[in-house]
Model the fold of this input.
Amino acid sequence: MQEKSKRSLVFGVVAVIAVGSTIAGAGLGRGAAGKMLETEARLLPGTTPAANHAVTTRGSAAPVMPEYKIALQDLEAAKLGASRNGGFESNALVRVLEHAERIDRHGSLFASIVAAKLFDSVADHVDARPALLDDEQLVAALRRSSFGSSRRPLEGERRHALDVLAGVPAQVPLRTAGYVESVSTRAMEEASATLHEMEDSVLAGNLEQCQTAAQKPRGLAKQVTVGPSICKTALHVATSGRRLRALQARANHHARRPAVVDL
Done:
């Protein structure tokens, strides 16, 4: 709770400073609050504008770690099962895939990183022992696995940044005649465009372009936008997703092979 209070105060002060530095050229009117709601609805589809925007902890490990610890136990079981017959290794890897997918659904970059590590571990096992793809259950699990965040590795960061900015007016204990709303609206546009550019660069494999884009935001947008250091992490998530899809292609090919009938 103390951390939340500190963050709220920081963003409130930042908002006031931003207002003071941009008030002359803001071009505001009575519709500033309405424009902010419209912008929020456009940039955050599927959410309710102005609905109690709490300042959350970006990339919190708390919801992820319990499942990750169980997944590590299953990975250890897979290692032990590699020296045994009877499908012990493949059964454990099926469970790891299920853990990875559930972790990825948490929607944070931290969750994506953890999921990537688990998906990569499964790929490592299959690369080391291709015969694992003879196991029908493992092939089926691979084919249905989804690593959604690897296709949009910075979407969680973008939504977090916009949610924080949407809550800034409520953090400023002063009437500003729409000034804070206007500044926040422009910051939302800038932060969203920046994170989209960073993400597009990562998906194209261009690390340098992502790092350059990360340095563009100014003022309030800069306070909520992740810096260049996050690009390598996002690139790893995207690369892991491509590796999983390549493994799924192998699994699909394996599943379509004609069965060998012993005569």
About this structure: The radius of gyration is 23 Å. The mean pLDDT is 84. The chain has one domain: 1-17+54-258.
